[in-house]
Amino acid sequence: xxxxxxxxxxxxxxxxxxxxxxxxxxxxxxxxxxxxxxxxxxxxxxxxxxxxxxxxxxxxxxxxxxxxxxxxxxxxxxxxxxxxxxxxxxxxxxxxxxxxxxxxxxxxxxxxxxxxxxxxxxxxxxxxxxxxxxxxxxxxxxxxxxxxxxxxxxxxxxxxxxxxxxxxxxxxxxxxxxxxxxxxxxxxxxxxxxxxxxxxxxxxx
Length: 205
Ligand SMILES: Nc1ccn([C@H]2C[C@H](O)[C@@H](COP(=O)(O)O)O2)c(=O)n1
What we know:
Blueprint lengths: L4 E3 L6 E3 L7 H5 L23 H13 L10 E5 L5 E6 L31 H7 L10 E6 L3 H9 L4 E6 L6 H12 L3 E4 L14
Parallel strand pairs: 5-6, 6-7
Antiparallel strand pairs: 1-2, 3-4, 3-5
Helix pairs in contact: 4-5
């Protein structure tokens, strides 16, 4: 009997055999030296790792690389309170609306010929793509400050914090409206200032 299990010859029944009786005295005499965690710091542990905000914002920039927008690629990542990514999105045309058929132009005489009426924003896509029941008390990392439409989605989805990188549209009414709504809804928003200007991902290591 190797580990207290007996299996009958037909392999039909796996039965726990009578494990040897152990009395409390035996338990206190057990040698735990092989299970104790060393108290000395582990000198082998890497310390040059990405910190959480850097990791999630870099992830948003990686997601943005899927965008077909010729001018502005936006990526968004939603993170829950346990630091788990529960949604990602980039700016792109709606499902079924081909990137080849719908316009990527801007500043066109006819508004219907520009991208703005059609493209789904990264933040909205991240919320739509969520892999959790809800996004309550989550935070969203976005490469670009959310517009007013995305701000509505963010507020309504229960997200409580917005971390962004670029605020290039800060003077546009859409951005001013976003900040008004975030302030009223007490949504925290702040600009991430990275320590490192670049993060290189070497795929052949
Ligand atoms: N919060 C935002 C704002 C904009 N976008 C997308 C929408 C367009 O594809 C692009 C902006 O184009 P631009 O006016 O810079 O030529 O970014 C978004 O995903 N989220």
